[in-house]
Structures are given as structure tokens and as C-alpha cells.
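Many introductory courses stop at the sequence. We go one step further.
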Amino acid sequence: MQKQTNKYLLFLSILLSINRINAQYPVYDFDPVVVTSSRIPTALSNTMRAITVLNREMISASGAQSVEALLEGAAGIDVQSRGPLGVQSDISIRGAGFEQTLILIDGVKLSDPQTAHHNMNLPVSLNDIEQIEILRGGGSKLYGPNAFGGVINIITRKILIPETRIQISGGSHSLYEGSAALSLPVKNITNQLSINKKHSDGYRHNTDFDNLNLFYKSTLKTGTSDFSLSSGYTEKDFGANGFYSLSYPNQREDTKTLFVDTRAVLHRNWGQISTGLNWRRHNDHYLLNFEHPEWYENTHRTNVIQADVQTTIQMKQFAHNIGIELGHDDINSNNLGNHRRQRGGVFYETRLNSSSKLDAMIGAATYYYSDWGWNFSPGIDVGYRLTDHLRWTASLGKAFRVPTFTELFYTSPASLGNPALKPENALTVEQNLLWNTPNLHSSIGVFYRKGTDLIDWVKTEDAEPWQALNIAEIQTAGFESELSVKPASSVLNSVIHRLSISYNYIYNSKSTAAYTSAYLLNNLRNQVVASVVPVDVLGAHQRWQIRYEDRLNQTSHIIVDAHFSRNFGKVELYLNVANIFNIDYADFSGLPMPGRWTTIGISYSLAPKSRIP
């Protein structure tokens, strides 16, 4: 291992010794237009919610090798991984469970009705993404079910110029990755296609993986109308050593996800009307022991079909959005059985700009499930501009989440579902101070959430199986702070191009008997994430990230990652080193994560890059 590391360091020193070329730094927009905190597009400086934006330049400069790795560097996001490089991860926000985070692609819900363990089986790779918007706090008044702790909206790129990109890399544990992307616009039609393949032999017994991603997107603009078609396919085959039970090191799983979305937007002087139809199909095959597949084998197939129509009306002092959504979920499983449920909802929000300083947003969604009936989720957001750059915001809202098919019906030697489960509910209140200038964005906020009938997999003794129960009540309070700055001072700017740091604290209080909790009571208590982008050194770009994580019932740890890259015209060479100091840590108790993991890669692009470090 030491010889391999020395080779990587020698490679890096060669990069740094090459004569400096003219460089342009990334452009970080601290006031982009966002669409996740409201269905009415709003500049970040005018939002009334706690929201973080990762734009294309930030994604390119991060050196992240998966969406999960990118999100680890975002304020307030808890990424619990069972394996590296996007094998399987659970995403949580503000101490909520991973089932309570809603994942969107271009505003389309991707919640898996079987289990949220599959929510990150995304049919896109990082090169397909234009922007990621992270809404912290409940969003059921906008999106209905499952927007409980927060919302992550992945917005895909719309490439308007011909572009060809090829990328290959290799690294520790026999890792190899290859990707290719092609964009071919023809008049008012754009077409883009990408493929990504990733393999590793694994960092310990039965942790090998093979991942495949395919993504296609086409858009058509005709006068006052926009049409789009997106489709993606992802396939994962991986060793699941101890993933769901530490007693079984030979677990294995493979998943296949197909996603298709078609959408039309009609623009008018008073606003716009949009309609969409999408389908997500997911296959999950699981073995408790791949050496003896006859012992225990599960096969699950889910289908989710959704349609929506909504309209946005812009007026002088008001903006309105109203829409309707219909959906169908079904599962065909040898373990869970065959089940179907229908759902539908109506949502409405209105934004008031009463003066140059005060504005407000009022909204509500009423949602119906064939299994549980109606649920009403109102909310209100208020913002007041104290100065040109300082803004105070507050919000109050109700959120809910419905049980998954796994929570309702799963049966295994290690876990038992519960058909009598009810939907979860929560009331969240928060307030924030936001500071925004061309070179600086910062925020400080506090929140309180009271959750009732929360669902968790729990047990009282180690010998018992995990059981799904509605835990009576959990009260969660938290403090959040975030700072992102591009130094304006010539002295600082000569050393650091960009600096960001965030700190988050979460406190949970549960009013139930003592349980051993698998998910809900396993959140981060203290989290610090800092990233530094120094200026180029001899033409080489670098980025350093430090994460401090203090999780309930586990040992705290500090992880340092680094990314180095060098441009040679259309060619870029890069080096990623994850967990530089080879720290022993685990996101789930008993499941060790990899130590130091090094990757070297090269990419070739025929189009001008959005970032030339």
C-alpha cells in the first residue's frame, strides 16, 4: 500500500512541477434562482427558507466521485454509507430518518415505496447535474408526503452546445471507472446521452461492486412552449457484508432502476402552465448468503406512476401556484406480497410582496392515500429585509410521511414489519438570519420539530429481531450555521480562492420506553464541514475538505479528503485522496468504512469547460 501511495505522490509532484498556464477561477454565484423552497422560482436572496445550492462550478471543483460524496460536504446533510462511491447510502436532514428525506430529479419525486434504502439509486451521474438544491425543514405544503426533514432536488443539465467528454480513472482496491457523454443540439432541439461504469474488488470481504448508469435527455423549444423527455437506467451489483444484519457477512444484493419523465411547459405573459407524466420501475434481488442462496432470497419489483398539472400566475403584488398530482404505487414481492395503493393531492401557495422589506408565503397541500385517507399540510413562511444584505426569515409548517411496503410487510430472520403502521406527522418551526453579498453568503438558524407516530426499526434485546413501530413522540431541536466566502481582499485572494464552513447541532428527546434504534435515534449530534479552495499552485487546482462528525452512540471522527487537478487544454488530470489519514470510522455501528482511498484519472473534453482551474 505504501509503494502505491508513493507512486501517487510522485505523480502529483510531476503535475505541480509543470510550468503554470493562464488560469481562470470558478465563478460562484451566491444568488442563483432556486425552485425548491417554492414552486414559484425565487432568487436565493429572497427565499424564506434554509436552502443550500451546489451549482455546476462547485460540483466540478469538488472532485467528488458520487452524488453521495458531494452531499457529504453540504451543510446539515447526514450521509450514512454502507459502502463507498455510491454503493448504498441513506440521506438524512436535521436529524430526521432517511425515509423522511424527499429526493427529486428536476422536481419529480423519486421516493421508493419499497424502502428509502433505494432512494439514492439515481439514474444520473455527477456530469449530468447542473445544480443541487437542498431545502432543510419540512416541505409537505409543497410536495406532500415524505418531505418531512427536508428536500434534495437534483436539477439536470441542459447543454446548448455540442460537447463530447470521455473520462477514465483507476485507484485503490482495483477500482476502475469509465464514463462518456455526448451532447448534440440540432436547431431548437437538444440531445444529450451519458454512460458511466464503475467497479471495485472491495476493501474487505464481500464489498465488491459493479455500478452502471445510463442517462438521456432531450428538450424542444417552440416559441412559447418547452418540451422535455428524460430517461435513465442504473444497475448495481454489490457485496452487502453486514448491511442489514452483522450476523450475515455473505449478504448480496443487485438492483435495477428505470426512470422516464416527460414534461411540457406553456409560457404566457401572466405566468405558465406545466404538465408532466413519469414512471419509475425498480427491481431488487437480495440474498442472505450468496454461498447458500436457497436459505433466504428476496425479489421485489415496484412501479411508481405519477402525473401532475400546475400553473403559476404572476401579478403585481402576488404570485400564485396551484396544481394537482395523481399517483399509483405497486409492489410484486415474494416476501412482501403484492400490494397496490393510489394517491392524489392538491397543492396551492401564494407569495405576497407587500413592500420592499416584507414578504410572505402561505401554502397548503391536501393529500389522499387509499390506505389511510386524507392528510392536510399547511405552512407559512415570512421574510423581512433588515438591511440591503441582511434578511430575517421564519416558517411554520406541518409535514407527514407514509409507511413503506417494507415497514408494513417485511419478514426475515432479522426484521419484522407491521401492517398496522400509521403515517408519521410533524410540526416544525424555524427562524434564520441570512447575509448575502456578491462575495459572501452566511446563515444562522434554529429549528424545533415535534414528531408524532414516528416509525423506526427497534428492539429491546439483542436477541430479538428488529420490529417496525410507531414511536410515540420525538422532539428535535437544532442550531445551524453556514459561511461561504470568496475573499475580496487582494491579500487573502492571493492565498485562498474560496472558503466555506458549517456547523450543525441536533438534540433529540424521545418520550417512549428505552429502545435500541436502527435509524431514527442514530443521527449526527455535532457536525462541522469545512472546505478550502486555495489558489492554483504552478497551474494545479486543489480542494481540501474536513468533516467532523459526532454521532449518537458512536465514536466521533475527523475525515480529511483532498482533490488535485491540472488542465492541459482539453485534457485534465486529477488525483483524489479520500480519508487521507486512514481513519477508522463507521456510519453504522459495526460496518467499517474504507480507510485511505486514492484515485487517479484523466478526462478529455471537446467543448470549452465550465471550469478551467
